[in-house]
């Protein structure tokens, strides 16, 4: 049974036993070790319950009759040795319980963590868009650790202590039914209080653990954004926000402590009342000749043995509720529906050519309003094998979203995306992502060596082989990432968390090298050169021309120079492809394209220090050129001078 095959019933609707039963698949492989641990704990409890009976025999025999019987001292010593042996036996059983339980509980913790991590890797990007990283981290570390401690300690002791109380209470009737009845009646307030406690404490436990996750998110965001906080002088603001969240968590923990304090009050009070009532009743029974003094002594010895199990129930009960809440939180992730999965019978592409096509593709995010139009509203676009296509459009037109569809980071909500005529949803994810590689504008690197980061997409290679070295060097050369050889350990340098020890341009070049090293048939680049200086960008573009000669590429262009890399350009406008053609063709035929290119040139000029100045005469000339192009026949438009779009005069600042 898979651990992810949890019930679709909401966690809050499950009873506590049903909620905790979901841990059974993890416990099943080591269940006999747990049975051994529980048996050892139960034997220890039974031995403890035997001691009062032995003491009764000692008091009733050699101690009470010692004045008239010879050898009484020897019998007393023998009785003491029996009690000592029982104590040693109890200690041995406690040691056995720990030996049985500790190792398998850590194995369960390991399996839960690895399976949860695997689940996080397979869940779609849409899931990670919704969930805070701190919440995921607290579930991975804090909640699973709590579950392990409960399985190893809380579960066993809760079961054994309940059995001990039941067995001990039955034995109390051995001496007199009235004494046993008093003991049971004084336990009723504990049951009522325990029921109320479960309702309140369960809610507080969930609230506390969720708040702890929010607090972890705040810490993570502050650490990752420390440069921004310092640059804008917002450290105190972040501290106030953190302090407010920490105070909310503190108040919830205090509420939990008050709830636990209430149950402990009753757990301490009722046994004392039971002892007092039993003492008075026992004295009266002795006076009536109903029981003997050794029997009353044994009754109180048994009640003393039962005191710890009774007092521990409150702590173990709250521990169980904490574990139930932790289980709910972990299974919130296991029970998430994965909408992006392998097909039941995946299709294979024997000889991939790299033809990428969007056929009536629609996409809308899951939180989009019902009245909102689709972000991608019927995309029709074909990239020929080996072709480089630039994708341009104004901010918000859907360029970046479109780049996530070929590799199924998101799935289309209508239409389809095909690779060599095969719907990408009919390919296994492993094969699809072997054929399609991506480089993002926001370059993410991992806490690993440069070599491991660049060769991330070549799992079939031994990263230290000669072939891997060749692929690594080729990719670094294309990305103009020769700076890695100046790092302390060269390509073996561990670059640190998210690559923040490198500059933005260095991170971007390594991310580009990673995409190139994957040797895909289709390369999707989301403005991969935005952080590079002009000279480095020119070198990278020249090297990319050779790489892209036999690779199909879709490049989101935010610079005019990136457009120059493309064989054709696709214009994205309000979620639709409104024009496709060469750069010069679109300049002649599309006013919106000229507007987009002018915007890109203005942004580029501002970045490089060249400020565009557009005069009224320039605008009139552009409008006239657009009018001529629109009225001319197709062959005349093709022969039109492509330089009519140069309407800007640059003045070096």
TrEMBL record:
It is a multi-pass membrane protein. Keywords: ATP-binding, Cell membrane, Membrane, Nucleotide-binding, Transmembrane, Transmembrane helix, Transport. GO terms for cellular component: plasma membrane. Residues 637-653 have a biased composition (Basic and acidic residues). Residues 624-636 have a biased composition (Low complexity). GO terms for molecular function: ABC-type oligopeptide transporter activity; ATP binding; ATP hydrolysis activity. It is found in: Cell membrane. Residues 624-653 are annotated as: Disordered. Residues 356-599 form the ABC transporter domain. The chain crosses the membrane at residues 30-55, 75-96, 150-171, 177-197, 263-286, 298-321. Residues 35-322 form the ABC transmembrane type-1 domain. InterPro entries: AAA+_ATPase, ABC1_TM_dom, ABC1_TM_sf, ABC_transporter-like_ATP-bd, ABC_transporter-like_CS, P-loop_NTPase, Type_1_exporter. PANTHER family: ATP-BINDING CASSETTE SUB-FAMILY B MEMBER 10, MITOCHONDRIAL, ATP-DEPENDENT PERMEASE MDL1, MITOCHONDRIAL. This is ATP-binding cassette subfamily B protein. It comes from Microbacterium ginsengiterrae.
